[in-house]
């Protein structure tokens, strides 16, 4: 290969780093070809390995040198952060600006530290192993070195937002616990990204291969004269023309031919072209404009990039393009992992003053006033500005500030060395998203709006909210926040001085029900109750504290019943509560067993605490002992007794003895031992034949064994087999009778006498076991228990039942009484808020045991100030039904500022709001932010206040003159932020573009080129007025809150974005076609629309990759985008047989339309269609390829119904069928086959023309063929 451009190399004694090595290999490859380059690479490898082995480089802890300047730099940075905090506290910047400024301060500190690390290594320790390793390209990078010996820096949280607490330590010094926790965010994110996104990248590659696999270089020249201008290329870089062919000749300024069409653009060509002063525009051939059918030609594709010469015929360039775009996705995934999730804010480049001096520039430049992200005011430049700095020695420095930059200085302003004078935005197409940040009040106080323009707006649901349309301040005038009791009456007005016992408010207390007053005094305050109703048991006495519990004795005519109380006196009762349980062992068993019963009240047998009447019936108890064991060793001694009869008192397990004796069984599966009392009878074989073997009861006098054994008592028969013999166990049954006891009744005395319907005490009996339930117990159980329960039907709200003991005439005995009380809520026992800490007392207007009618004023709650202070405000927006809010000024909320002769030189008045640094008189600045409360002869009294700066567009939650607590939301700042360009945005963004997905919140696009203006109607609604080149006026509605991307009067191109938001490619295509179809034919309009959309998509995809530091040749992206924009959809079939909605290839459609026109028929009308890579694959001409990708059944079914043919033109369908693929060597083979077929076809055609006169029908023709 002849070299096109040789760089003259001479001996250089320099350090070769990664970049130099890359440049060396690039030059070798460019000038000497693949073979020689590989030899050079091999020799370089051997050389470096040899010396690396000899040097024995090893990394130790001592090699990690932390720069000495680090401590000083961290100190300076902290001071700068503190200054920013002070600016925020005086209301000069918003919380968002403070956050952004803090992040930028730490980011700049990090970058300075990184430079220090590099300077130290380069100048003081160039042979440091860490430095050699990172900068030779062996392992690691500058970011990792910075984290090792500089500082770890700022981290992002899982939501992608930056944490404003930087990690100041490095890995050499070690992280603190807090830093370690924050640090782990990024590390985890990197690991998760690596795992998840690799799968996404692989799937993206598969889809790309599927859409482009049939693009093969099939011919040398398609013969097109079309191409792309150099300015239209996505990279827009002069060097990226290399490897393409000229579509049009280039002429010099004099009109001489410099290069003819189809000239290859090489390095030499470009170097020579640079020497020309002026030349005609460069137009190059591109895959986008190639007219080859289902392929691309050599001249339009250009060089094969791996060996810098024209691509060969048969090259599968589609596969190469798909892999070139898909493979970097895997690299992008790892991007976060390499930097450990560390944030790097390289979005703007700061221009600093190179020296001290005065700034000069022409003031007539177009610019708009702009507030930076840090809260500084500056100018957004619309055009380039020439900046000049002059110092006192006459030295002048001038430099250019490009358009769209931020200028932060005025003309004639004096600047210092290293002062930031401008910010240049690196990428004008950054991803902006709207964010919200809530502002919380740091103190309690009164809200005051200063210079805000409040407007009420409504959302789509009709909910109203307040917004601020102008930057201003929200002041919180400090004070202590208190809540007064509900329905309280405020006695004072704001501004009054308060003493310790000044009465602030009073709350009247009324009773709802009549009754007797009961006043309880405790540590929690005074409680007032009104007894409305009571019931007393007159035939029941309480013996207090008998055997550590209270006993209830109920006397009837026949006997006394003893109950044990289960409820403590003075306790509050609920419906169904148990008051007492009867001491009765009548229904108690000695062991466990099986219970069954026959009762007249079956509902009472259910296990629930319901109030039921007394019932009668019988319990049948079959006793049985059950013992649980954990290991077989515990029952090993009893194995010999298994399945035999044991006696009473016999030892079953260690220290465990049988109480009843009986049939002994060991059940290993259940880990239990059972002893069933009863007699065991063996059955003969004859008896077992006629015996009813079901378990059952046998009444006294009946046979147990027919004709043999009669029982004298009720028994329960159980049948079982033992050692192949059959036995009956007759188990004794205990019968417990439940008589209907009518003598146990409660004599109840009610007061008032007419109100006894809704409260009662009832005697009920409860069974707690289900019928036929087996109960495991060694100590016995109560089958039936008698209870006294509380029955309460609450018809009147607000009454509380309580159990009480009423003294009787007999000493040591009391009556049982239940009383209903209305509890009057006082403020002491109703305190729900932590802010209600003002002293309160309850004043009673009634005495104990006094009878009161309903709605009587029985007392009031009084709230006092508690300290010597001042009442500042009462919340005016609360009605009397809610808790009232007051603000009280304590001495700590007021500050004195001494000012001599203040009246003579004062610059402030009472009521003024001042910030820190405001002049109070000619000599004294205010050390506090606040409100001037009073001015005295020698001092000023300031009420401390906190100002919050609010930007335009902020949503307001607080109202002026309202009171707020510390932590209440005041407002929500709405601002724009730049998304961190991490892979989480990168790879999905590429996928979104390639899949041509619909975009939410898309930008408004210009329907035609023209001059754009923003107009407002009388309702305040904004519209965009577009005056086209033909003076046609179009009006476009703007949604509320949407920002425009142009200034009124700017010229906008067709389909350019007029508002903020993402551009939807589908909307862009529709806009372009609707504009062009009125000016050109359908074919031309479609072609133009596709071309502009293709350039847009290529630009967007390339921008996303380049923002991640990945470089892909434009020609690869062009091939994929061409596949996405090659289909049209038929709208009207004309006189053809096509159906509306049918999707066809654009070139095929153009040919059909041309034929229809030539024949005088109406051609079909169609619109351009943008397909994502998945849909483009499924709409492939080859149904075999489409079916092997996705939706196999649907694709094959449709192909069968339509009777489609697959011409096997691509690689995939040939692989599936098993044929030779038409690429590489297979391409030449198939070319030869086609050539032979063509030649044979020509011979056959000649023969047919001669054979035709012999016969007119096909049969004769076949006969002639056979001959």
Structural class: alpha+beta
Number of helices: 22
Percent of sequence in beta strands: 25-35%
Distance between the termini: 57 Å
Task: Summarize the biggest pleated sheet.
Answer: 11 strands, antiparallel
- Share of helical residues: 25-40%
The tally of beta strands, per DSSP, is 71
Q: Please state the overall shape, judged from the principal axes of the Cα atoms.
A: extended
Catalytic activity: RNA(n) + a ribonucleoside 5'-triphosphate = RNA(n+1) + diphosphate
Enzyme class: transferase
Function: DNA-dependent RNA polymerase catalyzes the transcription of DNA into RNA using the four ribonucleoside triphosphates as substrates.
Family: Belongs to the RNA polymerase beta' chain family. RpoC2 subfamily.
What do you see in this structure?
By secondary structure, the protein is of the alpha+beta class. It folds into 8 domains: 1-56, no CATH class; 61-175, Topoisomerase I, Chain A, domain 4, CATH 1.10.132.30; 216-315, no CATH class; 348-426, RNA polymerase II/Efflux pump adaptor protein, barrel-sandwich hybrid domain (OB fold (Dihydrolipoamide Acetyltransferase, E2P), Beta Barrel); 450-508 and 862-973, no CATH class; 509-616 and 739-861, no CATH class; 618-738, no CATH class; 1227-1266. It is built from 22 helices and 71 strands. Strands 27, 28, 29, 30, 31, 47, 48, 50, 51, 52 and 54 form an 11-stranded antiparallel β-sheet that branches. Mean pLDDT is 81; it is low at 1-6, 333-345, 602-613, 829-835, 980-984 and 1246-1267.
Can you summarize this structure?
Zn(2+) binds at residues 222, 290, 297, 300. This protein has eight domains: 1-56, no CATH class; 61-175, RNA polymerase Rpb1 funnel domain (Topoisomerase I, Chain A, domain 4, Orthogonal Bundle), CATH 1.10.132; 216-315, no CATH class; 348-426, RNA polymerase II/Efflux pump adaptor protein, barrel-sandwich hybrid domain (OB fold (Dihydrolipoamide Acetyltransferase, E2P), Beta Barrel), CATH 2.40.50.100; 450-508 and 862-973, no CATH class; 509-616 and 739-861, no CATH class; 618-738, no CATH class; 1227-1266.
